Structure formats: C-alpha cells, structure tokens
C-alpha cells in the first residue's frame, strides 16, 4: 500500500562531504571508478543514465555509519572509461557483478535510480542469490512512456546536437525553455536542472557516444523498449521498496503503481511534489525511509528450488490480469531477451 506523506523539502547540510573519494580498479582491461565508505552489510548505489556516483555523495555518510556503501560510476559514465562497448542493461548487470567480485563483496542491498533501477532489477534477475533487498527509485523498465526529450536524443543526429550544445551560447535557447517550464511548474520543469546537469557532464565525444549507446539500448523514438513486467514475479520473497515522485517528468508516477502491482509483496512510497530525483528533493526523508526499510526486513532467502517453481508456474493472476499485462507488453513493442 502506497503511503503519501506531506511534502516538506529538506536538504542535508551543504558542507556534508561524503568522505568517499573516487577509487579506481581495472576490470577486463577497463578502468572503473567507484566510491566506497563504511563497514557492515553492503549497499550498492547505482546511478541513472548520464549520471555518476556523485549523485549519491550527500547520502553516503549516513548510510556508511552502519553499512559498507559502494557507489560505482557505470562504464561509460563519470570517471570510468568510455570504450566502444556493450552498454545494454544485461552488460551493466554483469559489470556490477564483476566489480563486486574484485572488491570481494558477496551480497548487497541494491539501490537503483532510473536506468540504474533497471540495472538493479536485471542484476536481481541474473544473480538473485547475491541480492538482499531492492530499492528502486523512479525506475526504468516498467512501461514505454518516457519523456519526449530522451526519445528525441535516441534519434540519428543526437551526437551532433549534443556536441553543438557545448559551443559558447548554443545552450541559451534550451535554458530559456527550461526556465519557461519551471515558471509553468511542469513536472519536466521540476526535473530540468538535473537533466541539464547531465548534458553538461558530457565533456567529449567519447562521453557523448557512451551516453547515446546506453540510451539507445533502452529507448527509441516510441519510448522504452525494455520491460521487467514479464518476469518480475520472480522477485517474490525479495524485499522490494519502490520510491517515486508524483511530479516525475521523466518517467510518469503511473509506472510506480504498475510496478507495485506486478511485484508481489513490494512496498511503494510516493514523494508528493518531488520529480525524477526524490532523493535530491528530500534526502533526509529518503535516507530515513531506506534505513527503516533495511532495518524492518530480513535479507532475501533465495533458493534455486523456489526460483524453479516460480519460473515453471509462470506469471500469477487471473485471465483478466494476464490479458492486461500482455497489453502493456505489446505497447512496449520490444522486450529484453536476456
């Protein structure tokens, strides 16, 4: 059952440094950047597309009081290398597994935002025995709907457009539109500053190419092309928390309720007034929520026998429910085959 609490914007102190400077390890020949702090049961924070581990920095100190916190820069993002490589969701899940192997971490509570939520779900699907809990924040992979901005960036010529935005003064019209959206108090206007920050974080052709390759692995001109709805019933027994802002201009809050319905036993928390980055809008509440969720749930007790039983039984529900799910799958047009 979703709980909607009064929206009271709060911020962590601006001088609260994470104490988790970037570290680097080479995995499969590529340099991977990550942050790590604290000791105890592991929490892995996975950022969204075009973002980096820096998005979690204000949250790390409190989580690190009782946990080992790991926040990687996904390949092609932040300070990690940006090769011409496979940037699919499944490849990222494998990369997360390999980084954890290098660090000697066996099990984690996964916290994934947006595209990172899709990576977290894929990791839980591929390696359920290594996941204690899932926290999915404004996660991708639920339905085809996504902001037209990202659909547009998936089109041919996007790399040139992004490079032109780097020219002096070229971004002024875009920022004028952003200011107008904020003035009109639209959902996208609420998220626009963070989205513009992602564009500013693409300093060269390699970063832009990695961003577009990653985006095109999950989005085309019609919307999201990867769904988790067809297999999320396998998460039964996995403690799962869904967090969403009801003013999300990137992925609509309707996706939160769809995911909640499709994931047996999941918990849904809506942040009124928040956009696509609820952990930025109200980090204090977000931290309290995550800590309370971890403290109130036992790590998943996964077994291969249970997984086989769920897989053989297929998706639960009556015919009407299954028909509705099938309709949503067809709307998505394409599905992940991994």
Q: Name the strands of the widest sheet in spatial order.
A: 1-11-10-7-6-4-5-3-2
Q: What proportion of the residues form beta strands (DSSP E)?
A: 15-25%
Mean pLDDT: 81
Summarize the amount of helix as a percent range: 25-40%
| Major sheet size, sense and barrel closure | 9 strands, mixed
Secondary-structure element sequence? EEEEHEHEHEHHHHHEEEHEHHHH
Sheet/helix structural class: alpha/beta
Distance between the termini: 31 Å
> How many helical stretches?
13
Low-confidence stretches: 1-18, 332-338
Q: How many beta-strand segments?
A: 11
Gross morphology = globular
Could you provide a short overview of the structure?
The protein contains 13 helices and eleven strands. It is an alpha/beta fold. The strands form two sheets. The protein has a nine-stranded mixed β-sheet, sandwiched between helices.
Which tags fit this structure?
338 residues, alpha/beta, nine-stranded mixed sheet, two-stranded antiparallel ribbon, 13 helices, 11 strands, 16% strand, globular
Please give a structural write-up.
- This protein has 13 helices and 11 strands.
- The protein has helices at residues 60-63, 89-103, 115-126, 148-153, 158-165, 172-183, 187-200, 205-216, 254-262, 278-281, 283-296, 304-313, 319-332, and strands at residues 3-4, 23-27, 30-37, 42-46, 68-72, 108-113, 131-137, 219-220, 223-224, 240-245, 267-271.
- The radius of gyration is 19 Å and the shape is globular.
